[in-house]
## 1
Amino acid sequence: PADVKAELLKKYPPKVARKRAKQIMINEALENDTPEITANVRSTPGIITMRGCTYAGCKGVLLGPTRDIVNLVHGPIGCSFYAWLTRRNQTDAGLDGENYINYSFSTDMQEQDIIFGGEKKLEAAVQEIYDLMHPKSIAIFATCPVGLIGDDIHTIARLMKEKLGDCNVFAFSCEGYKGVSQSAGHHIANNQVFKHILGEDDTPVEGKFKINLLGEYNIGGDGFEIDRILDKCGITNILTFSGNSTYDKYATAHHADLNTVMCHRSVNYVGDMMEIKFGIPWIKVNFIGAKSTAKSLRKIAAYFEDQGLIDRVEAVIKEEMPEVEATMADVRSRTEGKTAMLFVGGSRAHHYQELFKEMGMKTISAGYEFAHRDDYEGRQVIPDIKIDADSRNIEEIHPEADETRFNPRKTPEQMAALEAAGVKFKHYDGMFSDMDEGTLVIDDVNQYEAEKLVEIMKPDIFCAGIKEKFSVMKLGVPMKQLHSYDSGGPYAGFRGAINFYQEIDRLTHSRVWAYLKAPWQESPELTAAYVWE
Ligand code: CFM
Ligand code: HCA
């Protein structure tokens, strides 16, 4: 791995090499002393990063999956067009007809709006949407030029909310450049949803064991599979933030007695804020991998301290596992010992290692596009993370206990007892501790490094996004998209695990890669060489 690292850095000018050296780590399994990685810093101009922008993280990722809030993009049309239905977040449109996911709403700013201001146009767009569709809520998203010219989207939102009366209009200052990546957009989205919707509806929610599932986006139907399992266990999932969600689910989420956090990178902010405001504790869960799914269900059951639920969860695991194990054993006879590389946004590069482990495959290199140090090193390092100008740019909300709605779900003694029994609150491990010694962990990997890694280490499968897909396949290595799942999924839960094993088995054993060489690469005599007269 040291040689590979040196090879990756060799091409760079010294200053860039010094910076990248701190983002490329050779994993050392040191007890109680995790190495420090540089993360959540700006990408170097000129390098083809895999990252996206703050607007993408806010509008596309976090708010995109909510079906009955109209997402109105204030900006040039490209920001809407290129974010239109590109993230395979599924929704169950229900019978109320309130599903705006398949539409693209934009103010379509022109040059004159940039010069003279776009506020009037925004106001008119909100009115037009209201007149046409009467949605419960309209969310306004700022794109880069809006921040540059200074349109006051929050005032427009407030005025329009007052004017319309029965439509919650609120806005996000999620200009693309606002942070170093999508991650800033997550934080902005958490803040605004917390301030403008969460916990505003006190209508009681039925259910004995009520939870929210934060940080699950129903890509390829993952959320549907998780809900199937939770349902079977008798657990009521009020809000999935934000897969398959609706306005009302956010509004009633404060009735849950436990917040479970799946993608901690994107929603840990709201988990913390809800604990302070409403008294709901949060725990980390992971429904990627059959064993992780079982473990997460057991953790939820342990939290509720109810024997009936504990037994029910065990019964469900017992019922679901035989089919998973049969497929796992069959596939494993072929995939054992194969290698994988995973470079995905902020949590999948870690979560999916579980599924590969179940198939006997080894993750030899992994990294996040935009995670923070805690995602690599574990949540305990948060107090040591240096705040820089870019992170200071994002509002930090300091909520207080709600006067009427705050209700601590457990006493400090109960929390301590649960901690002692292994139900850790407000905690997640980093990627480092789950990876083998000597593996390469790379933050904000770029196009050049990805190709080099594949050339040198020849993994049996490479997982990343659409921008990486074809360059990797051209190197003759199978590629699986772990953002969109290509056209597949679900991969979460028990049935998802079965899907994933079978798909990776097919991908790593496809014979198509053998046909990838062009005829002249196999038979040099076919090369037409130019000869000077
Ligand atoms: Fe969380 Fe996500 Fe991810 Fe993410 Fe994303 Fe995504 Fe992702 Mo693409 S919220 S951090 S900003 S798990 S869109 S559903 S796949 S990069 S690893
Ligand atoms: C985003 C969305 C994305 C992109 C995926 C990809 C997604 O970051 O804006 O590059 O293939 O999951 O859709 O992460």
## 2
Amino acid sequence: LIQVVGVKEHEKFRGVYWVSFEDGTERLATINLTPGKRVYGEQLIQWEGKEYRIWNPYRSKLAAAIMNGLKVMPIIEGSRILYLGAASGTTVSHVSDIVGNNGVIYSVEFSPRVFREFVEKLVDQGRKNVIPILADARYPEQYVHIVKTVDIAYIDIAQPFQAKILADNADVYVKSHGYVMLVIKAMSIDVTKEPSETFKREIDVLKDRGYEILDMVHLEPYDTAHAMVIGRKTS
Ligand code: SAM
């Protein structure tokens, strides 16, 4: 195993770390909120009394976006987040590490099989800041009795009309001047269009709905034909 030679906080984002290895490589990591427990087979690192979980950009599009120089990353300690498309919790688990026990992640997933895996890997393993919701993100009213006002809405559902679905949710749940984070998967939106055309169309939907675009990065080489967009409510 390659030895760890240092850990330092990310130059811009609190709660995100760089782990340096003796071969000169650096990898992203977060502090494990549930020490000793893994969520997706990730490497655990012990350093100066803390346990870190290596954050794999090939498995998590948020990590890929950070690796590719994302400038605005609104998730911080204590953030309240509505996360649409939680899947089996790979990215949610790192977001859970970052927001800590003062934060909350309302995690919406509509596949019952995947949802069960999410609950087993995150909630049953002791992540108290994660609230699993089995529901369809296209119908935000389905979870109005559970979700309170949030700072950020994040979507990664790999379905058409993601920007519209994100705005439909953010209009209801995101606080004034709060943030939206949109993973665009060009192929699953419209296979007949070039990625850049799809990206522009999705961004235009957000703009038309009253969101200012703060940042956008492509996710190659970690994911092809994907981009991450960060926006903010203008009122
Ligand atoms: N965000 C996850 C991560 O990084 O760990 C990966 C998400 S995966 C690309 C997309 C997920 O969205 C799938 O688990 C799928 O079942 C879910 N999904 C698709 N359409 C949905 C919808 N309308 N409502 C809720 N979940 C949906």
